[in-house]
């Protein structure tokens, strides 16, 4: 998942903490890469029976208070086992 902040002045440590602060049953955050163009690429595992990626993005990442930091969220790759 690729998460972009509103501007290039965003403190990326606080930005990552904002994303990782979301805790839900069926969600496990993994490794992340802070790219030079000010975006966060983060791996996550979702238990399909407990939650959906759309729910995570629409109800948690892009609404208050997280939308103060987060401009957009994109699913870069999706694997289902």
From TrEMBL:
SMART domains: EF1_GNE
Domain of life according to the entry: Eukaryota
Claim: Plastid is one of the keywords in the record: no
Role this protein plays: EF-1-beta and EF-1-delta stimulate the exchange of GDP bound to EF-1-alpha to GTP.
Subunit structure: EF-1 is composed of 4 subunits: alpha, beta (1B-alpha=beta'), delta (1B-beta), and gamma (1B-gamma).
Similarity field: Belongs to the EF-1-beta/EF-1-delta family.
Protein name (database record): Translation elongation factor EF1B beta/delta subunit guanine nucleotide exchange domain-containing protein
Phylogenetic lineage: Eukaryota, Viridiplantae, Streptophyta, Embryophyta, Tracheophyta
């Amino acid at each position: 998942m690729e998460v972009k902040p509103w501007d290039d002045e965003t403190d990326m440590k606080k930005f990552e903490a904002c994303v990782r602060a979301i805790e839900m049953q069926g969600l496990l955050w993994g490794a992340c890469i802070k790219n030079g163009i000010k975006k966060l690429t983060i791996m996550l595992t979702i238990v399909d029976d407990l939650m959906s990626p759309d729910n995570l993005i629409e109800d948690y990442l892009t609404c208050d208070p997280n939308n103060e930091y987060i401009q957009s969220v994109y699913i870069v790759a999706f694997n289902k086992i």
